[in-house]
Structure formats: structure tokens, C-alpha cells
Design goal:
single chain, alpha/beta, binds uracil
Length: 473
């Protein structure tokens, strides 16, 4: 029997070197006893036969890049059998170079299973490390976090934190080792205890306030949340102490939000359209706000009877800084004219204020905002709605309707009729003009006719709403 011992349990290069030597010498998997440092019977780090003679590689050893990538992850797993499994697969690969393509093979399955668990642990560490602020002995600030990974992923994950927090000084303490970054180099120190973490600080207060504000009761799915954020991580997450309370209050908050048309943020709404315009231009509440495009604020008379809401500015709108000036806007203008609705008398805006796009060469291709992004931007739309206080609101498409209703309606069922709102407005839903632009032939003609009918119905509703007559709709 040959004893093969790794100096460090996550030492991939060490394992690779030993395994290459063993396969080269023709040592069959059953003849090798693998162990991590401190666990094995051998006292040498490396490979020796029972007489202590080093094992020297005699023949070339083959391993695909795919196997080496898998092995790099698997070695980080805590399963003591992983080293023997890796070696067995490497051994078999010499005769079966396509072994990894056999998804039903037990060793291959086991390898993928371990790699998956390691990848998940890496992802969880990236998601759940929470820093507290502390002072170094020289008075400078250092962020310190405590984390308990399932596997030996600390070193493998260090690069991620170095890149993410390159300009900060930070330490991540774990039960196996501690990592420290001083802005220039990465250092290790011995294991730590949770009690080494400094006590709660202002950073944590801010984080809790942020978490409270982004917690969206309308989107709460407890099962999905537990899957993403398993309970075992809760003890080290400051926000976990609030989860039970937030979940318990979620249904009431959702009902209240729908009743009052309120948004996710508990701040006062800016008092004027100009203030909203100023504030929205610096909004970074979601990823679209951070994409470097300019925000496009609504425009039109501040006391308009009709508010028209689209999805988000497109390429032309972002360039012009005005809503609905591109091809969809031109089609909308034509239909409004034909329906006898004066666009200049309406307040025209969008559910999302920044242009979400995907770069394609020199072009910027429209991307649909997610429900979460629309919900976040609802803050601004609600502000405009409260200030303009229109009698009637036209929602163009599902994103606009979600921004106004807080839920995504089935357009086919809800279009073309007045839907009374808790704030006294009448909501009128139809399709987005871009949808008509994407159609052609008969389908386009048919859908344009329906769009024209919807706008004719809206014109009638406006007559009633503005003149105060009632009962027609
Ligand atoms: N589409 C929209 O929804 N809004 C615009 O402003 C332009 C195109």
C-alpha cells in the first residue's frame, strides 16, 4: 500500500503532482491510501512506498482540461473520500479518455455531485459574507466578516473578494483560516472565532435599513427564500433577525400597498415634478439606474386630466431626453390624433425612467425591464401620479400596467375598459405601440384596428370623466 498525503486539504497543485507520479508508476487506485495532512499514516507530504522510497513518474499521464477543472473544485469538498475518487477517475481516464462523457457512470456522477456542492458553497459565501466596520491599530478602517463555509473554499474565493473590494482593507475570519487584504496583498492567519468579530456597528444599521426597504412583501415566496438563503446561514446574517417579523407582516403590507398604491420605499414623495425630475436623474435603486443612461422624466401639463404611461424610454427617447419621440411615439401620436385625443394636453411618462438595453455593436437593443425593476421605479411613477392627479390613466402594455397596478395584468382580458382605482382615477389598459410595430400584414392591420377602438373608448371615457357625466362606462 502506498500512502499519499496532501500538505493542505485544498492543495490542488500538490494533489496533481502526487497523482501524476502515482499514475506514472502504474499504482492502481486500490493500492493508494489518500489522506489530508494530519490524518494519514505516512509522515511525508508526498508519495512514498511502504519503505519510504519516493514514487517517480515513469509514463506520461493524460487528463483533459474538463477533468482538471472539476478536480480543482472537488478537492475543496470536505468529503475525505474525494481524493481517492479523483485518483480513481484519473486512473480510469488513461484507458477511457471519454469517461467524463458517460453521465451515468457512478464515479462521474459522484464527481459532479461534489463539484456542484462546492460551487454552491462558493456562491453562498459570496452572497452571505457581511462586513462590519472596525479600526486597525493605526486607526484606519477595516471591514471584518465572519463566515462558516461547508467546504474548504476560503482561498479559492479570496480572489472574488479582492476584486470586489480592491480599495478597502478587509478580513474574512473563518473556523479554518483567516484572510486579510490590505489593499495591496493578501495574507492568511490562523483560524478565528465568531467572538473575534467586532460588535454591531453603523454599517450593519445601514444594511438593516436597506434590507427593510428592499424587502418586497408582494414578491415574497417563503419556499424560494429558504432555498436561496438556507436557515444555517441565518445566524451570521444581521438581516435574519428581521425575517420572521417581515414575513409575518408581509401580507398586511402587501394589502396596504395595493390599497394605497404605495411603493416599497418609506420616504416622503418629492413635492413637485421638477424635484422628482432632479431626483430621478441620480436614481441608482436598481441596475438600470446604474447603466449610465440619462433618466427620462415625464412631460406635459402638471394638471393634465389624462396621464399616458409607457414602459421605458427607448434609444431615441434617451437621446432626446423626452418620452415617446421615436417610432413607437410617432405611431401613438397618429392614433391619438385619430381618436381626437390631444397629446399636448396629456402628461406622458413611463413606468421605468431609464433605458434598459443590451449593446449590439453600435446599436442599443431594448430589453424588457423585470417586474422587480418596475416595482422599484414605481416610487417615481407614484410621485408623478400624486402630483398630476389625472382623472384617467392610459397604460400602454403590461409593464406600464404593472407600474400602475402593482401586479401584471392579462392585457387580453383587461384592455379596453375603465378600471376604477383606489385613488379615484380610471385606469384604461391597451397594448404598447411597439407591439404593433413588430407585427406585419393582416395581423398588424387587425391589431391596429383594435388599438384604434381602445383609444376611441378612452376618448369617450375622457369626455365623461372631464365633463363630470357618469354612468356611461
Ligand atoms: N416606449 C415606451 O414605452 N416609452 C417611450 O418613451 C418610448 C418607447
Amino acid at each position: 500500500m502506498i500512502a499519499a498525503t496532501l500538505a493542505e486539504p485544498d492543495d490542488f497543485e500538490g494533489w496533481r503532482e502526487l497523482a501524476r507520479g502515482l499514475v506514472g508508476r502504474g499504482c492502481a487506485p486500490d493500492d493508494v491510501a489518500w489522506s489530508d495532512a494530519g490524518e494519514g499514516t505516512g509522515d511525508l507530504f508526498g508519495v512514498a512506498d511502504t519503505e519510504g522510497r519516493p514514487v517517480v513518474s515513469m509514463r506520461p499521464v493524460r487528463a483533459s482540461r474538463g477533468f482538471l477543472d472539476l478536480a480543482r473544485s472537488v478537492i475543496l469538498h470536505r468529503d475525505p473520500q474525494r481524493l481517492a475518487l479523483l485518483y480513481r477517475v484519473l486512473w480510469r481516464l488513461q484507458r477511457q479518455p471519454h469517461l467524463l462523457d458517460d453521465a451515468a457512470d457512478r464515479d462521474v456522477l459522484a464527481l459532479h455531485g461534489l463539484a456542484r456542492q462546492v460551487r454552491r458553497d462558493i456562491h453562498k459565501m459570496r452572497a452571505f459574507v457581511r462586513f462590519r466596520s472596525a479600526q486597525d491599530c493605526d486607526g484606519s478602517e477595516r471591514m471584518i466578516a465572519w463566515f462558516e463555509p461547508d467546504h474548504r473554499i476560503e482561498r479559492a474565493n479570496a480572489d472574488f473578494f479582492v476584486r470586489r473590494f480592491a480599495n478597502e482593507r478587509w478580513s474574512i475570519l473563518t473556523p479554518r483560516l483567516s484572510l486579510h487584504w490590505d489593499g495591496a496583498g493578501l495574507f492568511e492567519s490562523p483560524p478565528a472565532n465568531r467572538s473575534d468579530l467586532p460588535s454591531d456597528d453603523l454599517t450593519e444599521e445601514l444594511w438593516l435599513a436597506y434590507y427593510r426597504s428592499i424587502f418586497n412583501p408582494a414578491r415574497l415566496k417563503v419556499g424560494a427564500m429558504l432555498k436561496e438563503m438556507p436557515r444555517k446561514y441565518w445566524k451570521n446574517l444581521p438581516e435574519a433577525s428581521m425575517i420572521a417579523q417581515l414575513v409575518a407582516g408581509a401580507q398586511q403590507r402587501e394589502a396596504a400597498m395595493i390599497d394605497t398604491g404605495k411603493t416599497l420605499f418609506d420616504e416622503p414623495v418629492p413635492g413637485s415634478l421638477a424635484e422628482i425630475g432632479k431626483a430621478v436623474s441620480g436614481c441608482t435603486r436598481c441596475a438600470i439606474g446604474c447603466n449610465g443612461t440619462r433618466a427620462v422624466m415625464g412631460e406635459g401639463p402638471p394638471q393634465a386630466r389624462l396621464m399616458i404611461v409607457g414602459e421605458q424610454p427607448g434609444d431615441s427617447e434617451e437621446i432626446a431626453g423626452r418620452p415617446f419621440v421615436g417610432p413607437a411615439g410617432q405611431l401613438l401620436d397618429r392614433h391619438l390624433r385619430e381618436a381626437g385625443i390631444d397629446r399636448d394636453a396629456a402628461y406622458v411618462t413611463n413606468a421605468v425612467k431609464h433605458f434598459k438595453y443590451e449593446p449590439r455593436g453600435k446599436r442599443r437593443l431594448h430589453q424588457t425591464p423585470t417586474a422587480g425593476e418596475i416595482d422599484i421605479c414605481r416610487w417615481w411613477l407614484d410621485g408623478e401620479r400624486a402630483i398630476v392627479a389625472p382623472r384617467v390613466i392610459l397604460a400602454l402594455g403590461a409593464s406600464a400596467a404593472r407600474g400602475l397596478l402593482g401586479r401584471t395584468p392579462a392585457i387580453g382580458r383587461e384592455r379596453g375598459r375603465a378600471i376604477p382605482q383606489p385613488d379615484g382615477t380610471q385606469l384604461w389598459i391597451t397594448v404598447h405601440p411597439s407591439y404593433l410595430l413588430r407585427l406585419d400584414g393582416d395581423a398588424q392591420a387587425r391589431e391596429e384596428r383594435r388599438f384604434a377602438e381602445d383609444l376611441a373608448g378612452l376618448a369617450a371615457l375622457l369626455d365623461v370623466a372631464v365633463s363630470g357625466r357618469s354612468g356611461v362606462m
